[in-house]
Amino acid sequence: MSIKKILVSQPRPTSEKSPYFDLEKKFGVEIVFRPFIKVEGLTSKEFRQSKVNVPDFSAIILTARTAIDHFFRLCKELRYNVPDTLKYFCVSETVAHYLQKYVIYRKRKIFYSESGRMEDLIPIIAKHNKETYLMPVSDVHNDKAVVLDNNKVKYVKAVMYRTVSNDFKPGEVFDYDMLVFFTPAGIKSYTTNFPDYMDRKVVIAAMGSTTLEAAANAGLTVDVTITPKTPSMASAIEYYLKNVKSPGEKEPVKVAPAPKVVVEEPVAPAKPVVDEEFAKRSAAAKKAAATRKAKAEAAAAAAAKRSAAAKKAAATRKAKAQTKSEKK
Questions:
Q1: Rounded Cα–Cα distance for residues 269 and 244 (Å)
Q2: Strands across the sheet with 110-112, in order?
Q3: Residues 280-318: pLDDT tens digits?
Q4: In the chain, which residues fall in CATH 3.40.50.10090?
Q5: What does the pLDDT look like over 65-98, one tens digit per residue?
Q6: What is the spatial distance between Cα 210 and Cα 144, in angstroms, rounded to a whole number?
Q7: Architecture of the domain defined by 40-163
Q8: Cα separation, 93 vs 303, whole angstroms
Q9: pLDDT at res. 141
Q10: Which of 79, 117, 173, 298 to pair with 243, CA 20 to 30 A apart?
């Protein structure tokens, strides 16, 4: 299949040095940037219904710049002056530096994971175990909270913004040969906007275990994804374009039109760029989902057991107290 027009479901890059622009020049394709989803914040009225009282917390766990924006937005709408004593625990240095938009950057109150992984933020949080933690999240959030649960971090999740479908307008032209997804919400938006998505002859590119899982659940075949050989989506697309381009479809050059040539034998269609590594990643994503479900069920069972034990202990204490009172 010849790829001429690609839809990347992200905002247009602010830098002209983006590798996507290099792909346009190198392969003569048109790349359109249009998010399938958009983020909107909860109103202060909606947030109050969650019964979360922001002043009760002494520390905030931040996983994205979006979470920072909506935390301070809601604080302003709630007329809550964020105290200078509030501590911030960020998943990466990039997220930590973004705080400078709202607060004076001070090392004694802003902490972050050097690796950008939630697992490496846990030891830092453990050193401040007397803090009360609040974690702003979207209504559809990733597995970062699972890391906190597995390490028994006491915190409260507060939904402060939601991810919604960025609907396409009626009659809007949708003539893309490849669609590039980065989130499960993007997959959902696509299948919602285009109920006939299974009949559309488009190449699907996706990255991230949860996105691949969402695509599989929707019945979509992912032809392009990241691998150790192609660690970024741009490089994965480039690898695919090199393989699907037939010898007669090289980069466009300004030459006089050549006479038509009748091809006696059809050119064999290119195979989708799906290697063993992708198959392993897809299987790993499903296995991880099953593991998370099992852990959640085990945690629920443990919580129920602890609750029953607590009730039994309380009843025992009450009985002893009554016996002691009767003896007096």
A1: 8
A2: 37-41, 155-165, 133-138, 59-62, 87-90, 110-112
A3: 655 666 666 666 667 667 766 766 676 676 677 767 777
A4: 5-36+166-249, 40-163
A5: 999 999 999 999 999 999 999 999 999 999 999 9
A6: 12
A7: 3-Layer(aba) Sandwich (3.40)
A8: 35
A9: 63
A10: 173
Tokens (6 digits) for 127:
């050193």
Q: Which residues 6+ apart lie within 8 Å of 258 measured at CB?
A: none
Residue 86: closest CA among 47, 49, 55, 65: 55
Region 5-36+166-249: CATH code: 3.40.50.10090
Q: Is the pTM value of this prediction over 0.70?
A: no
Spell out a b/e string for 72-101, using b for 16 or more CB atoms within 10 Å of the CB, else e.
bbbbeeeeeeeeeebbbbbbbeebbebbee
The two tokens of residue 36 are: 């399938």
What's the token pair of residue 81? 């002056």
Which amino acid, 287? Answer: K
Q: 133 Cβ partners below 8 Å, 6+ apart?
A: 57, 59, 60, 61, 89, 125, 153, 154, 155, 156
Residue 73: closest CA among 167, 158, 183, 155: 158
Closest CA to 131 of 238, 38, 56: 56
Tokens at 64, concatenated: 């994205």
- 10 Å CB burial of residue 320 (0-12, 13-18, 19+) is exposed
Question: Exposed e or buried b for every residue in 279-311, given b needs 16+ CB within 10 A?
Answer: eebbeebeeeeeeeeeeeeeeeeeeeeeeeeee
Which tokens in the block code for residue 83? 């105290």
Q: Which two tokens stand for residue 283?
A: 């299987």
How many other CB atoms are found less than 10 A from the CB of residue 131?
Answer: 18
SS3 174: coil
**Residues 6 or more apart whose Cβ sits within 8 Å of residue 17:** none
Q: Where are the alpha helices (DSSP H) in 59-193?
A: 65-77, 93-98, 122-126, 144-150, 184-193
Element of type H or E holding 162: strand 155-165
